[in-house]
């Protein structure tokens, strides 16, 4: 089956030379991922070479649109899909080691799809960075709300449509915006008024949320518009004009 390359990120090697890495997946019909891993661009052959094949049972892996950002004096690579709630330290050794990846979540460490449990400090959900735990996504939050594990006000995504219903996002990206002085997200709604064509905007004062001020900015009611991505290098007027 085909191989899809995504999630490009650059890191320096031991000699200080910039190297380009990318996540990859191999798929088979209809859209089943049967292999995932990390590739490195070969400057001599102008091709991507497989660097490492990941364990398919791992709860965390590089997925989405990455960016580098420092937290507490440590530089990390954050993976936004569409929210930047998965990260790993920005070194080659950490990038290739899935046990070093962290998810920002309220689930207890070690949680999987079939064993979810919200960690609380008293009555308050305990959101923090945790290894070996499935990522916190719009789909997961919708499940936690539906099953009564969280109350609506406790979720990281405070996004609702015109009717007040929750918005579940499928893909997109997030970056810091100087004009808004906030992190802004542009993402794709899953099965809104079109299957995969409704594009939303949201923002947050903190990288991890809560995310608010949801606005639909583009509609494609007759066709899809898949996986929107911001391109901050094209911003104009100090971030007042954004391209994606």
Structural notes for this entry:
It is a single chain. By secondary structure, this protein is mainly beta. 5% of the residues lie in helices and 41% in strands. The chain contains two helices and 15 strands. The strands form four sheets. A five-stranded antiparallel beta sheet has the order 5-6-7-8-11, with no helix packed on it. The mean pLDDT is 94.
Summarize the structure.
By secondary structure, the chain is mainly beta. 5% of the residues lie in helices and 41% in strands.
Quaternary structure state of the chains depicted: single chain
Q: What about the largest sheet? A: 5 strands, antiparallel
Using only CA atoms, what is the Rg? 18 Å
User: How many H/I helices?
Assistant: 2
Mean pLDDT: 94
H/E element order:
EEEEEEEHEEEEHEEEE
Q: In what range is the share of β-strand residues? A: 35-45%
Q: If strands are numbered along the chain, what order do they take across the biggest sheet? A: 5-6-7-8-11
- Total count of strands: 15
Helix percent reads under 10%
* Intertermini distance: 29 Å
Uncertain segments are none
- Tell me the overall shape: globular
Q: Strand pairing plus helix content: what structural class?
A: mainly beta
């Amino acid at each position: 089956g085909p191989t899809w390359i995504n999630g490009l990120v650059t890191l320096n090697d031991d000699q200080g030379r910039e190297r380009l890495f990318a996540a990859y997946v191999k798929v088979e019909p209809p859209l089943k991922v049967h292999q995932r891993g990390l590739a490195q661009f070969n400057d001599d052959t102008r091709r991507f070479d497989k660097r490492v094949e990941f364990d398919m049972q791992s709860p965390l892996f590089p997925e989405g649109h990455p960016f580098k950002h420092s937290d507490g004096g440590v530089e990390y690579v954050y993976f936004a899909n569409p929210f930047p709630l998965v990260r790993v330290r920005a070194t080659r050794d950490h990038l290739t080691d899935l046990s070093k990846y962290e998810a920002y979540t309220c689930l207890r460490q070690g949680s999987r799809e079939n064993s979810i449990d919200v960690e609380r400090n008293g009555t308050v959900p305990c959101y923090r960075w945790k290894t070996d735990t499935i990522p916190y996504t719009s789909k997961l939050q919708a499940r936690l709300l539906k099953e009564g594990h969280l109350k609506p006000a406790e979720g990281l995504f405070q996004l609702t449509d015109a009717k007040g219903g929750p918005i579940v996002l499928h893909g997109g990206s997030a970056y810091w915006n100087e004009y808004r002085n906030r992190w802004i997200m542009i993402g794709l709604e899953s099965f809104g008024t079109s299957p995969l064509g409704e594009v939303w905007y949201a923002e947050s004062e903190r990288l991890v949320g809560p995310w608010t001020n949801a606005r639909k900015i583009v509609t494609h009611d007759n066709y899809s518009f898949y996986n929107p991505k911001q391109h901050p290098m094209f911003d104009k007027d100090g971030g007042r004009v954004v391209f994606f």
